[in-house]
Amino acid sequence: MATLHSPVVNKEDNQKISTERLTPQTAYHVPLWKALTGLIMSYVIVGAFFIAHGAIGFAEKGVAARIIFFHVPCAVLSSIAYFVGFFYAARYLLKLKSEKIKPFLDDYRSAAAMELGFLFCLLATITGSIFAGVQWGSFWNWDPRETSIVVMLLLYASYLLLRAANSLKPELRARLSAVYAVVALVPAQFLIWAVPRILATMHPTTTLTDPRMTSLSYKMVLYPAFIAFVLLFIWLMQLRVRMMMLWEQHRHNAQQTMETDYR
Amino acid sequence: MSGSLWYQQAVALWRKDLRAELRTRVALGSMGVFALASLMLIALSMLSLKDEVFVDALGHSHLAWDNPAKMALLWVLFCFAAFAGLSHSFVHEESTGTAQNLRLFMSAHAVYAGKLFFNFTVLGAIMLVITPIYMLLTGMQVGGIMVFVPIMVWGGMSLAAVATTVAALASRAHTSGALFGAIGLPMLIVLLVLIMQAAKLCYSAHIDTISIVKDTGGLLSYGILIITLSALSFHFVWED
User: Fold this and answer.
1) A84 lies in which domain range?
2) In sequence order, which ranges of chain B are alpha helices (DSSP H)?
């Protein structure tokens, strides 16, 4: 199998890329965990409407509450994605400091996690707003959790904006965006943990922490929903990192072709 | 200079920036004019809210234009004023080419500390002038002075810390103007929430130890964490 040797990644990264099979396969078989992701996600979609009963105390005889099977995992993932992005950003900076190499794979992973964080944050905001409209009579109530998720969305957008600055060279872009991901961890932490706790909220706070607050039919769908969404996140992240690698390879090849033509 | 300790270098940079600023007054002037103009806009637009009452999401009714609301708008004003002028210190170094000299003769920590204290000095000067005028125009009260002053000082320090880090990032990206506000302001929303939470203590009749720790702890830890993480990662931004 031909492996991709991107000029901007180091030897160790290249070994990892080669095992990740960047090139198209002639006889492609679906790995077990990916098949499992599809199965669990299908179960969650069906289960949200046919296994879970209408929730007590919710609008439309509890039917409106079915959106939580998609809203809550999206909201949780939007937080997890930031930690993943931060982890790889910090690892990138630490490697840069200690190994004197350019560990671009960590940069790509950090960026992919941030992009997916933005996506899940957007989905959580939209689904939350729909639910608020049905349940509380207004699509926006300035609840601390509503505000938090929108500010998280802005933080993700800022990261992507910094990364998209045209004048940046790949190495500088990676460094600056990694530093931003590290420093913006502070407001992100406060948004995830502190703000919804120091300000009064309309959101239920014990749905996940106290199992007695959730019925069995809801647990049967909600818990698999978390697994399905986490697996989906890993899958999407893997695809996005491969895309970035291929794009970088393409960019490098185009640059080399231009230099050859010029000579 | 390269042989001296980092804090001596930081003080030297702070003095150099201060002298340059007093010569041209670009940052002070732009922030001052921006803050005064915003102040007039706020005071005028809030006249109609003077006697308005609003009911929050939890059903509690409040005066719309009360002291915490006035304090919130004062800090919104400071945030925008900071972002109107505090990028100048880094942008100026990059545009005049003196950034390379600083890289050669000073450690990254010294540069960060020097710029942070310079930005805090400029912001502090603006706050000292604007706050009394704002209080005069809007009728905002100080409340508990022992809470008010630390909030103003530490809030200003945290604001300067965010602005310094973001200014360094934006100046390195060479798209300073638009990018500076876009990547900095989302970080300030959390700071504003924490300042508002702490500011409630100024106007509370009964203050117990738990609420002081809870309400001011967030603001204090936010500033400490931002400064620590910025200082630790600054050399990745600064050095080539």
Assistant:
1) 66-203+218-251
2) 6-24, 26-45, 67-85, 88-96, 98-105, 108-138, 145-173, 176-199, 209-238
